[in-house]
Amino acid sequence: MSYAQPGHGPLDYQPVSYPGSTMTFRGPAVDLSGGYVLCLGGSETFGKFVSAPFPEQLADRLEVPVVNMGAMNAGLDLMLHDPAIRAGIMGADAVVLQIMGAQNMTNRFYRVHPRRNDRFLEASSLLQTIFREIDFTEFHFTRHMLSSLQLISQERFGIVVEELREAWRARMNQFISQIRVPVHLLWMSRHAPADQPPSGELGSDPLFISQEMLQGIAHKAESLSLCISDAADRENPTRDMFFASSEEAAARILPGPRLHERAAEMLYDQMGR
User: What band does 29 get if pLDDT is binned at 50, 70 and 90?
Assistant: First the structure.
């Protein structure tokens, strides 16, 4: 297998499990018996293809332990129900919560895998009624399924998006209200909250989260950091990332080292004062 960054091997993510959960998170393992900052989120927080994701860089700046419980393609379902995450929140001094999209959650229209939240399991009878022409057994991932619905009917797709947004609002409010320590929200994306995706496209993660939705929860948190790709990031999106040649497409849509560094700097500005 060939890797980008000639002369370097694949990254060792040092996968680690914490008590009570079958999930594996990015290491190194951190002792949860003392004080620490807990970072929660999806692929961006995990830091796929990046040697030093922002939780690691934040630990260097704060000079305190930082636990990375970001999980690939995670949604709020995992955050709300995973035992290790719940235990991690209980022992944390502060929580960094990456803003995740609304697509990877069980809702009135479809059900997702409880741990791998990007996995589409089944459509509800309501969704099957709205899209009678669709054979939902053909889909295995939420993004593929939603892209297909959008192509069939923009109007009916809009009904699904509104349900996902309502579910996201309810679950984010529920999740933040359960956390008794300062919560620092992190928007880490190729687009700003106010940006609209090109016509006929889903757009980049986090999907379906508008500026109004973000403002609706920001007042519940200690801070909100907006970490957005700039022109240099978009010009060379895989710079200094480590990936197999077959993984280039996946690497291109994830944040690279420069964005992780900026995220760590922004969070330090909020937390290190």
Answer: very high
